[in-house]
Amino acid sequence: MINEISGRELKSASLAQLNEYCNELRNEIIETVSKCGGHLSSNLGAVELTVALHRVFDFPKDKLIFDVGHQCYTHKLLSGRAKVFHTLRKRGGLSGFPKHSESEYDCYDTGHAGTSISAAIGFAKARDLKGEDYSVIALVGDGSFNNGLIYEALNSIKILDSRILIILNDNGMSISPTVGGMHDILGKIKEAPTGAEVFEHFGLTYRGVVNGNDLGALLPALEEAKELLKRGSVLLHVVTKKGQGYPFSECAPLLTHGVSPSAPKREYCSALGEELCALAETHPGIVAVTAAMTDNLGLRPFFEKFPDRAFDVGICEEHASVLCASLAAGGMKPYYAIYSTFLERAFDEIIHDICAQNLPVTLCIDRAGVSGADGETHQGVFDLSYLSFIPNLTVAIPKDIGEFRSMLRLSADCPSPLAIRYPREGTEGEISDIEIGKFEVLHSTLSDIVLLAAGERCLNIAWEVRERALREGFDVGIVNARFLRPLDEELLRSLPHRYVFTIEDNALIGGLGDGVTRFYRRVGSSKQVKCFGYEDRFLPHGEPRELMELFGLSAEAIYKEVRAAHEGR
Amino acid sequence: MINEISGRELKSASLAQLNEYCNELRNEIIETVSKCGGHLSSNLGAVELTVALHRVFDFPKDKLIFDVGHQCYTHKLLSGRAKVFHTLRKRGGLSGFPKHSESEYDCYDTGHAGTSISAAIGFAKARDLKGEDYSVIALVGDGSFNNGLIYEALNSIKILDSRILIILNDNGMSISPTVGGMHDILGKIKEAPTGAEVFEHFGLTYRGVVNGNDLGALLPALEEAKELLKRGSVLLHVVTKKGQGYPFSECAPLLTHGVSPSAPKREYCSALGEELCALAETHPGIVAVTAAMTDNLGLRPFFEKFPDRAFDVGICEEHASVLCASLAAGGMKPYYAIYSTFLERAFDEIIHDICAQNLPVTLCIDRAGVSGADGETHQGVFDLSYLSFIPNLTVAIPKDIGEFRSMLRLSADCPSPLAIRYPREGTEGEISDIEIGKFEVLHSTLSDIVLLAAGERCLNIAWEVRERALREGFDVGIVNARFLRPLDEELLRSLPHRYVFTIEDNALIGGLGDGVTRFYRRVGSSKQVKCFGYEDRFLPHGEPRELMELFGLSAEAIYKEVRAAHEGR
């Protein structure tokens, strides 16, 4: 374990000592991430920058806001959390992202891209209104600089007359390589900093380009920025090397962006890439869109095979949605692959552009349900809720990777918007013919009880509940509730069971359970419906299985209710 | 009524004839808007520009996409809809926004700001992939140019290698005067067009500044742009005068942005301004935030009285949310006033920034429920659904303006996120003490039936239903269901009635009815719950009352069910 260093030591250390300390930090991060998983290359790139910030500024009095937040490991190690750093991303341990509940050094929680400059402005205004005196710093990567929220914030710096320091950590990568017009501007500036005039229009004094892996250059640059900050807002342009100091990571920053502690099982995203490639052969209208997540979503094969029909627009979830809508309006068949939690950013566009116009866009929603070690800001437990009420939209939940493939094949000729949501990992399965809005009875029984489960994880729980029931001498039916919209009303109507249990890997409010309950209410049924999903709270980080059990989806707890129903209690 | 002009006539007319025709169009728009309501000044400003576009391009083969879409009246008059223009914004008549279902000349529906450039890129890509040949034009106001979605799209023009024509209609106004860094850039360019280099970085050939109310200047500029468009993307910077040709509108474009056909009743937004001003005297932490809607939301008095504590960030709904979250994290008490439909744009930030951090931001959600004449893209019928499942959030629905005032007073010391949703118009009412999560029994009765209604409109319906019941000799209870989150479980548990009816001015899926049903399901109650709200479809334009009756909230239809329940059927 790394030695805890005090703020005082950091402030008085020599440059050589600081460099030595950066090496120790780097080793600690590599060691911990190899055990706990996490973001490796972005953290390795930001070691010197974070050390320099802690040297020059006074945290937690001064406020440091990390955009996205995945590059905060050095900050955690420097703010009293070295002793518990080995608990990183484990249930009950340190979060992989800034968490105010964890330390006062984390003044603002992040996880999604683009919020840091807005947040810095808010702190700066609050400071000025309260007559306080501290510096506010937004540390933002060039990948986030494509995001609309960043632009909205930049645009309002003058309006709000706030003094903030923006550190642009330019490593030329978001998760995939950074792309776009702003990237070109930054490139030009790197060649000739006089081109930085555009930032002056936004009320920023520009300084750069500084080598962000060189403390000797960084420290004076930060000192100067701190001085400038007394008079107005500053943009300090720093270039760092993602994965600095770790040969494997330097060579392949993409592969080490997020590191899993163990080898993954079969992933849904691989099937997405395979199926889209196959379908695209016979469907010339098919195009694929991603917001800087080509690899994580399995789209690499499609991008290689159909480069003209594959679009990575950078971290721009909203633009990607409107692009899909208009591609569809123009006669194409777009597939928009995205993580469940990031799709929240495109909520308005799903309603306003895709569904209100009833355009045939397919949303491929990965990392749905609890997603695990990344915690609150990355759980995909709201999508069934926020998609449940959008007119014209079909919402499908495959029971395994085979059924996911079948749904993708079905989607190719679907004339209206379709969302398919799935977790990261799963098992293969059969290809089958699927009809929109039709559930599948997996186990039929004359007992009083039927379990309607959505998706592989929940069906696994359902089978486990049935095992327990069989051991105690009774049986339960199991239905694959593979569509949230439309529900299979015919099947719901015909179920002979008195007790209907729903199980979903989603918040309990607004999902499948509420839909089934609504149906039975509407038809005046006397069935008893019992619903299982997640509690009404934000779910912290931990192993998916662990989180499921803790927050609402434990086979044991569900079985208890099943048995009570069986006994007529 | 204006004479319908054919495309051929328009293409062969002399400049003098075109100018004469612009006068006729302008008169037609003024006359119709004065009868039907609608957007006056933005449409008057865009008459020449639209005529010139129709002269130079070939619609519907070429594609014209209006940002926001409220400036499309001339386009409608020029594309075969002059004869029905008098039906503008009336139920069953022409929409005030582009509607593909209305005309093939409207290739893409809009309503919210910032989508046009993304949409243009999508059409251009579809065109190229399909080997078609047409021009794609995005017509966007400078107000939208602050929006993050615009920036995301600009940023991807190079990536996507698309050829589009962006016409920047610069009138220096969004709804309130345009503000921000981009505004400054545009101002600099107007002084010296050489400053337009920033657009070149984004892959755009810049041309301008052209007087957009002068056909003599516009026509050659558009011809040139059309030529340039063969080789790449073009930004044509046009300056128009909002309200051009209508003295009253030219002087006061703000007042004529949206025009109502008759004088409004009492508005909730006035109470917001009054209460916030009063509260701010005793609560130094209170600040107000708006996204370019100061007047429409009633915030003008606050902006005048507390200029340092009032922030208009332009059409940046997301940035406004994060700004509120961080102002709260910095110790302030922010109020974010916004229309229900536009808050959809900030959905992710409500979850990720405000509620996940449990920050004491108050969302003042105006135009909730059906909002009427603006149609599909402006109805506020999803907010109860999309707020229902967000942890840490309280959601309140006042029964009248007095109760709204009471809730605002309550909010001032509320330590967690609070949303208050209300329609535009209402009646005053008493100030009272309100406890979070407590319903109010308005009429108690021993009958079998109780109506739980949320908000003034629905309570009015409930009283009307009771009137009908009384006339037929029975009574029903009435409860003011003023909190969606948390529900008043104690009251729900204690209701003696066998039939519980819920009435809400929101989509039926995911709102109050589902919440009440969920509660009774959870406690295993045998109550019969019947729910009334809007059907699962997008609601077109029309008078609010008319739409309510047509799509789910008719006192007559509800009474029918009430009587059936009373009769035990």
Structural commentary:
The structure is a homodimer of 569-residue chains. By secondary structure, chain A is of the alpha/beta class. Chain A folds into three domains: 7-249, Rossmann fold, CATH 3.40.50; 268-421, Rossmann fold (3-Layer(aba) Sandwich), CATH 3.40.50.970; 440-566, Rossmann fold (3-Layer(aba) Sandwich). Helices cover 40% and strands 16% of the residues of chain A. Chain A is built from 24 helices and 17 strands. In chain A, β13 (449-454), α20 and β14 form a beta-alpha-beta unit. The longest helix of chain A has 22 residues, at 15-36. Chain A is globular and about 75 Å long. The relative contact order of chain A is 0.08. The model of chain A has no long low-confidence stretch (mean pLDDT 93).
Give a short synopsis of this structure.
The first copy, chain A, is an alpha/beta fold and 569 residues long. The first copy, chain A, is 40% helix and 16% strand. In chain A, the strands form three sheets. A seven-stranded mixed sheet of chain A has the order 7-6-8-9-11-10-15, with helices on both faces. Chain A has a five-stranded parallel sheet with strand order 1-2-3-5-4, sandwiched between helices. A five-stranded mixed sheet of chain A has the order 12-14-13-16-17, with helices on both faces.
Q: What is the quaternary state of this protein?
A: homodimer
The structure class of chain A reads alpha/beta
Question: If interface size is counted as residues with C-beta under 8 Å from the partner's C-beta, which chains form the largest one?
Answer: A-B, 107 and 106 residues
Report on the biggest sheet of chain A: 7 strands, mixed
Average pLDDT of chain A, to the nearest integer? 93
Helix content of chain A: 40-55%
The CATH top-level class label of the largest domain in chain A: Alpha Beta
CATH architecture of the largest domain in chain A: 3-Layer(aba) Sandwich
Number of domains of chain A: 3
Radius of gyration of chain A: 25 Å
Largest beta sheet: strand ordering of chain A:
7-6-8-9-11-10-15
Low-confidence stretches of chain A: none
CATH topology of the largest domain in chain A: Rossmann fold
Number of strands of chain A: 17
Count helical runs of chain A: 24
Distance between the termini of chain A: 54 Å
Q: Which term fits the overall shape of chain A?
A: globular
Say which CATH homologous superfamily of the largest domain in chain A is assigned. Answer: Thiamin diphosphate (ThDP)-binding fold, Pyr/PP domains
Q: Percent of residues of chain A in beta strands?
A: 15-25%
